[in-house]
Every structure is written in C-alpha cells, then in structure tokens.
Design a protein that fits this description.
mainly alpha
Amino acid sequence: MSLSHGAHDPATAEEESAIAGTGLLPRIAGRFGKTLFSLVVTLFGLLLVTFAIARLVPIDPALAVVGPRATQAQYEAARRDMGLDQPIPVQFVKYLGDVVQGDFGRSNLTARPVLEDVRNAFPATLELATLATLLGVLLGVPAGVVSAVSQGRWPDHVLRVVGLLGYSMPVFWLGLIALLIFYGQLGWVGGPGRLDVSYELSYELDVTAYTGSILIDSALSGAWDVFANALTHIALPVFVLGYFSLAYISRMTRSFMLEQLGQEYVTAARVKGVPERRVVWVHALGNAMVPLITVIALSYAALLEGSVLTETVFAWPGLGLYITQALFAADLNAVLGGTVVIGVSFIVLNLLSDLLYAVVDPRAQ
C-alpha cells in the first residue's frame, strides 16, 4: 500500500482513455481483489500470534477455571475438556475453527461467552473512538493546512506547539486534570461512566438498543433527556482522545501539504492565475488526501485499541476497560478475544482505506 502518490498532472491520451474507460465499481473491485489475500494472511498471522501468546504467558487456563483448591483429577479433567492435552498443532487448528465460528470461549470473570461480553463492550469504545476521530479530522486537517501555508510564521508556530503538547501530555494525566476542572470544579460536564445513575433506569425502560451507542439509540427512541445526559458524559473523554488524534492528524497533514505545495503543478496553477484558496484547498489538499486516508484510518484504529487509559480514568465500560479488567483477573479467554477483535478492526479499516484510494485517486488500481 503506497502512502503517497504524485500530483494530478495532465495525463497522456492513452492514460486518459484508460482512466475514463474504467468505472468506479470495477476499480474498487480490482482494489478489493488485490488486497483480500494479504488481509487473509494478516488475519491468519494475528490468530497465530494470539494463540502463541496464550501458550507462552505464565497463566494456566485449566487452573484458572478449576481454581487452586481443585484436586489433581479435577485439574486433569479440565485440561482434557479444554483440549490442552492435545498436541500444539491440533490445538491451533481447533482454535482457528472456534474463532471462525465466533467462539472465543467463556470468560472466567463474567461467566458469560466472551463474544457476548465483547458485543456489549465494543459499542461504547466504537462510539468514543468515532467521535474523537471526527473531532481530530474536523480540526486537525484544517490546522495542518493552515500550518503548511503559514510555514515559518506565527500561525505555524502556534499550531505546532499545540500539536506538540498533544504528543507530550500523558492521556491519563490530561483526563484526570480535565475531570478535576470541568467536572469537579466547574460542573460543566458529567462525571465518569456513560450516564448518571438517575438516568440508567430511564435508559433501560425508554431506549431501544439498536446499535449499543447511547447517543444514537436515545436519539432514535426520542429519549432526549437521556441523550443530553449521555452527551455531557462523553464530552470529556472525546476531548481527551480527540486532542491526541488532532495532534497526529494535523502534523501529518502539514507534512503532506508541504510536499504538495512544493510540486510543479502548484507553481503552474499559480502562474495561470488560479485563486490561491483553490490551489491550496482543492488541488494540493486533494492530492494530499490519498496518504491522509491512511493516517486517519490508522489513527481511528489506534483509538479503538489505545483508549484503555482513557476508559479507565473515565470508568467508560468499553472494550479497553474490559480487556484491562480481564488481564488483572488472569482471564485469558477474554484478553485474547478482545485482542482478536481489535486486530480485526485494524484489518477492516486497512481494507476500507485501501478501497477509498480507488475513489479518491482513479490511478490507484
């Protein structure tokens, strides 16, 4: 996957004919076919790594199930039931078959199937990461463009300092400070959790769980009081994660824009009298969007798996908090199940960004 492409210079007659004769759907289908095999191999590698981790970590799954007071006979029976007495290759094949069927085993922490736990926790993480990524894109891309256009002047220096602070401040520290000021002192936002305790019963009675996202489900159900309360709770964690996303996206946007603004096609457009705004925001940014798609996709995926500290600070019942609690409880099935789901999210986002290349740039075959 290429992270950069050349500018949209005038094509030759043959190239124009080829591009014009290639429709959007065939381009997407071709791109999909080229990446599908590599994604399958990546998924296989992910499952192989998670299986190896399960066998290498100093946690005995059978002992975690039966407990330290079990007899040797009970322990051996548990090993046979879990297939741990089989050769490693046989165990791996069984693991592959179970994962393909969506069976990650049962959580020792909750006594429920891991897939059910993940299905309950993942929407909270998805809601948080999606809003944070939208905030990062809506503010980070314009900030990066302005910084590139103002290179060496005060707007560039200010925006680079803002981005540097986003990289430098620990997420848990920023979350705690934000809670102390905006919730503890000013009372502008809701506290930890997704809802106030007084609204949890209203949510269960008045809101239909269409997606697992409280904001979406409460809006679809017309429960606007629940929606408003949920909005006050999600504001701070979205700000914290969105700030880090903004810092990364703005920095990469600035880098891509500086590269594009130095191209000959930009100089030619300016010589021809094309308005500067169009040169920057249409031509240069249009070419920078191809590598920027990858940056945004990776930032989104990183928020999906990297929001553990934020979810812990804000008591946000998402997948990151679930995996953390399972890790402390030595719940290996839950840890590996959550890890596989995060890995699959990376793969899916990588596929989607690859397909978007064919939409943004017709030459990306």
